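Key idea: predict the complex, not the pieces.
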Amino acid sequence: MTSELDGAGGVLTREPIRLRIAPTRHLISSALLVAVLCAVTGGALISAIWAPGSPVILGFQLGLTVVIAAGLILVIIPLIGAIQASRVKNPADRVEQRTKSAKSRQRAAVSMGVAAAVLVVMGVIYFLIVNDASVQKTFLQPDLMILSFPDILAAFGQNVFIALVAQVLVLIWAMVIALLRISKTAAMKPLRSLATLYIDIFRGLPAIIVIYLVGFGLSFTQIPGLSDLSATWYAIIALTLTYGAYTAEVYRSGLESIHPSQVYAARSLGFSYLQTMRVVVVPQGIRRVIPPLMNNFISLQKDTALVGIIGAVDAFNQSQIYAGNHFNLSSVTIVAAFFLIITITQARLLDRYLDRQERKRSGA
Amino acid sequence: MAFLEIENLYKSYGPNAVLRGIDLSVNQHEVLCLIGASGSGKSTLLRCINALETIDEGEIRLDGDGISGPGVDVNKLREHIGIVFQNFNLFPNMTVLRNIAVAPEMLLGLSREQANERALGLLDRIGLADKANAHPDQLSGGQQQRAAIVRSLAMEPRMLLLDEITSALDPELVSEVLSLVRELARDGMTMLLATHEMNFAREVSNRVCFLHQGTICEIGTPEQIFTAPEHPRTQEFLRSIIAAGRL
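Result:
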């Protein structure tokens, strides 16, 4: 078959285009090597865990073994898939060759990725059982954990109370500061400057210093009503001051992100500046900053562990008493677990809430 | 005495003079269209009238009372003069019904039931009663713009300013918005509208005003402006509109 193109430039007579099909064998052999390394390390770890006279407690022995075994299985499954996919039935069929090569390479890569993670986990396990399982005995001694649990749980109520009250106060106080900060009229300038100064100071001071100054300072002042509060309330005041500054800036970014056309629309209907803020700007602005607000609150919740320095008995303080009496940190591990449980739970609940909101808005 | 009177209005943004001595009056029940190239000052003029922009010089009077300059209760003024924007600007944090009801409820002292009833009546009139509980982003552009128009109407304004209300719409959605405006004109609403829809301007308006670089170049009946423009600038503008197939 000839054409004019053929004659003129030889466009159609050149060699046919055949894109290279990536070979699979290098990736598969690498994945095999890594898997073998994993298996050897895992085997060594398991035999160390079950060695006669091992100080590792039975529950941990079982748990760690299951983790290692599960990890190894997760490495091997995709590796088998990679090897199977590398077998091409009809080498002349380029489509088959190409799809199988892609599949095989992808499986081999997954196998190596999992293996890397498993090696890291096995490193942590080694850290737990090394040196006569001293790490496990220091941080994870079950009898001490059970012994200290009730007292620490009760004291954790103190942390929760401080966090809840401070959060409510922060939500209101920070909005006042943020609204002052974005005000524009000449009359508001002095208050606007004060708000800026407040944010500069309390965002710059470490929370522990504010807690210390408020907790000890206010009780020295002899001011009626302020000097005889409990350590808990001093902690609430200090955390509100500190996190009020952070949260005011979060609010401000949210309020300023609302397009001016929304303000024009509200003002043009006859709403005053404050009504416009209340009805249109603040509701939209807050919605946009819910994730960073949550960040601030999680941070605040964690900082309730600092209140021990002014004599409030919180969970961390309580756990330190156990740690001191037993020369062991397992009680502190309990507190750590408490904090993780509440913060992770909140983060997941927030994700779900935001998802639902998103679906409600786009659906219906 | 005209309902709205604008006298010798000047407005600049820094060194950029946008309005340079505008004299214009709008009678009650009159529909006046502002036409002109982008940047000729149409939008700025509308925004000056309901005090979304301050003016540098001149005076604006509504029903014989001065509404420009310091000390004017702009919130009360805006209850009387509604404005509808190019980009609808509905409040995304509220349902369509609340968008319309919130201002009458908070500003006119209506109860929530009365305000919702008024809003529902307006939505029914534009055939969107079934969207009352939807959020604005679930509506088409044309539906949003019609809801924005009745949001202004819910305040029962004496006059409506429409700022290129079809410019952000897909072509097939323009007509539903224009028929609503046509209906308002028939009902006797006083309207001042900036528009690029020349055919619509010709059909709906009592007078047409051609703005050029911040001054009124020519003003007259649609017949006069569109068939026998006198000023060379107007002739040039209309020639290019016709060349683009928009008239």
